[in-house]
What we know:
Strand order of the largest sheet: 11-10-21-20-19-18-17-16
Shape: globular
Number of helices: 18
Number of strands: 29
Distance between the termini: 37 Å
Amino acid sequence: xxxxxxxxxxxxxxxxxxxxxxxxxxxxxxxxxxxxxxxxxxxxxxxxxxxxxxxxxxxxxxxxxxxxxxxxxxxxxxxxxxxxxxxxxxxxxxxxxxxxxxxxxxxxxxxxxxxxxxxxxxxxxxxxxxxxxxxxxxxxxxxxxxxxxxxxxxxxxxxxxxxxxxxxxxxxxxxxxxxxxxxxxxxxxxxxxxxxxxxxxxxxxxxxxxxxxxxxxxxxxxxxxxxxxxxxxxxxxxxxxxxxxxxxxxxxxxxxxxxxxxxxxxxxxxxxxxxxxxxxxxxxxxxxxxxxxxxxxxxxxxxxxxxxxxxxxxxxxxxxxxxxxxxxxxxxxxxxxxxxxxxxxxxxxxxxxxxxxxxxxxxxxxxxxxxxxxxxxxxxxxxxxxxxxxxxxxxxxxxxxxxxxxxxxxxxxxxxxxxxxxxxxxxxxxxxxxxxxxxxxxxxxxxxxxxxxxxxxxxxxxxxxxxxxxxxxxxxxxxxxxxxxxxxxxxxxxxxxxxxxxxxxxxxxxxxxxxxxxxxxxxxxxxxxxxxxxxxxxxxxxxxxxxxxxxxxxxxxxxxxxxxxxxxxxxxxxxxxxxxxxxxxxxxxxxxxxxxxxxxxxxxxxxxxxxxxxxxxxxxxxxxxxxxxxxxxxxxxxxxxxxxxxxxxxxxxxxxxxxxxxxx
Length: 664
């Protein structure tokens, strides 16, 4: 699913942000629309709507509506390097909040900046705080963006924070645009360049296997597999190898809804409760507002809530659990206010459509059948499936993640167990497909609902309704219904990504050029190939600046540096003295069981979905985390706690906290 394992990433929590500094600047200003802004030295950026904008002699600052997140863009001037520039920025902005950097990693020069460096800071999980700096040099002078505040607010308002960071440019710089350029043909030479780019990226990022395909409006122009299905084994990936496509399922699920609108069985503006009365959210007010179009818009105010299905899904979990979990989910922002990605809502969208097609059938079976009848078979997608056993019976790419040694490893136990947990929620990300099959869906999007045999299967109006912007995601990027539209480079690119354990993928189409593509990878590091692949395709179409290769190289170096830094803080196997103080059994009302087991020198945590070894990490605030070390979930922490004499392990995502209580 789109960053499904974000919930399982090492995101240090946030607590309180530094207090507002005394200002001699004019009164702060808010606005009901994004607006251009600039720093005292003339660097430009976009201030998000509803955020307060403050100006001071050395910096400009934007403050989230909640008041607990602040982003400052500080003029530093000359400095020895990025680390020194960041230190000077903190000294000018909030000296009491400054701390030593944990890691400084380079990004390629972009957007008029001669150097760009990201600065990470050590933040203990119990702080629930996000803290970073982005140091940018133009000529001799440095500009530093400081971000500091509550983790929950940063996730909730991540699109606005991205808008600020993506839009910072030196005074007078105009970004590259392909608007008005005629697209070059995707000929054999350009295909060879794209293939070579992917092969090089796979080597740099440690991706064992990948497949990609290119289509125009008439046919598949090229499809291939590269690398191997499983590291250490010779069987190659080809264009018919199965990969899990995760959240790329969402666009096809909304295509089902579009077909039902064409058939007169559904309306986009119809209240969901009128077609599925059991639909209910944690807020009655939000429930009443949700129309069919809102189910996959990421705009209802419901936050991401993946932990329960990731940790507590079993073989007998019914598809209807989607609606049980939604009924217990409260919105954390206003309706239509911000982009918040919620997989349960996308799951509900598919099941609501399936219920309309087959009202007397269990919703999971109804969805599988409806998708086969209404989408897969008409589009000629003969091998795309939700059946894990069918997908993994023959030519399939195994998932890979980096292990404790920093090298990719096949994750056939915990990794596949975690991936199977999506099955009851499969409209949000449970499909398997191949490059040859998935590119047919991309071509159908390019043809605006017309099948390869010329029949109009979905009307252009209803197909395109899924691309209408509902909320912004960043600078010149908007989200519709299971599809993003990216206009960052001056031409619209319709796309969506997919992320499950060991599988990262993307689909994209460039309507102005009449070209679409898919890329499928069998490694978590494949995430760092997706956007560069899109960029490289655009470079070849529009003679763009050669940036994609540098992006991959920088990402590979960053991954290695981040791994080395975190690995140095991790004790694996787990410290026996710490393990000895744990209970043997824990239970959580939301996340189910956690049993602590020993296997030789290793300590294992057994959840309902996965079994994984664990290590230990001593945090800067004196707390201790038990850290999952199976490659698929490597680095995910559970904080040891004692509340009122009761032993607990605390699990958090950015906006929720779950407690495993010891069974004494």
